[in-house]
Amino acid sequence: MESIFGVVQSDGSYAGTIQEFRVGGQQLVSASGEINAYDKADAFKVQRELMQAHASGAIGAVKRRFDLNTEAAGMQLLAGLTDPAQMRALASTASATVQEVNRRDGFLRNILMPMDLGQGERSEIEMPVHESYAVVAQGIGSVGLQPVNNRYFRPIEFTLQHAAVADDLEIKRSPSDMVQRMFDDGQEAMMVKEDRLLVEVLRRTQELGSNETLLPSGPFTPKLAAQFLNSIQGHGLPASVLLIANNVWQDIMGEPDFHAMFDPVTRHELVLTGRLSTLFGYTFVTDGYRKESQRVLRDGEMFALSTPEHVGVYTDRGGVEATPYDGTVTTSNSRGWYLREHVSITAPNGRAVQHLQRLL
Known about the structure:
- The chain is an alpha+beta fold and 360 residues long.
- It has one domain (18-357).
- Helices cover 34% and strands 25% of the residues.
- It contains 11 helices and 17 strands.
- It has helices at 40-56, 70-80, 84-105, 108-111, 168-173, 175-206, 222-233, 246-253, 256-259, 268-271, 308-311, and strands at 22-23, 26-27, 113-117, 125-126, 133-139, 142-147, 152-153, 158-167, 239-244, 263-264, 275-279, 282-286, 301-306, 313-317, 321-326, 334-347, 353-357.
- Strands 3, 5, 6, 8, 14, 15 and 16 form a 7-stranded mixed beta sheet that branches.
- It is flat, with a radius of gyration of 22 Å.
């Protein structure tokens, strides 16, 4: 069978036809993949236009970890309706794409330290003691405190899961469209589940340390930025990532006093991972390029974070697994694959997290 992946770039990514996208007749991204801008202020303006276009779906899914050959994959999906081996092979490919996308674009895997667990291994993490309690995820939508015992954290493992399925009649009508939709659905759903839980853990972790949650009103100003960002380094910890809500980034892009301070990211491939700029040692990252339903930060919310070894750890037992899903056994017409991942999330250091929630 023909490979279900088309031509990809040397780094395994795919830029689609973003160079053909224009606003007011202006080409926003050059053939080299750089944002077309003549100075920093113009770079911020183009970033804003790209963010709005991607989030609204005007550009579409021009950035994927793999360029899916939908015709070949659609035929494999169609064959999988009657051949379990074909469906298993396609499900395995889907799990690999989810893992790659989450590793590159997800917040969780770029903010916390990874710890892979094999079969028979216990979820036990040794870290320097910063607090008497650690924040641990207890399941989807559930976060709690766990006492620190002799520098060891024993987080609760739980399962993230999602069924990427479609009606078998729709698959027969349009297999190429449906397989792309199912791949995208699985990638987006698993990444959002991880990141929503991470953000909830970070909100609680803030409460453990001496960094008070800042609740300003009005726009985000250079003075507030300095106060906010210096809080982590004030504890002797290195700066790493600043998670920033879309509307706060709009404040920054619209404030000329910020333009001289920032170095905006101008590589479109990096921009689509949410990376926007750097300041005071922080890389600014947003979920503003995602569809609104896939965003995990509240309006007006920001997190200043230290490096992963100071913030916390996530465990992953075996990575993302995919099992063919056959709804006919329960009198359903749904077919596809069932994604699941066994993880835990621990964040024991409140000093490594500074939270800001703007009063709207």
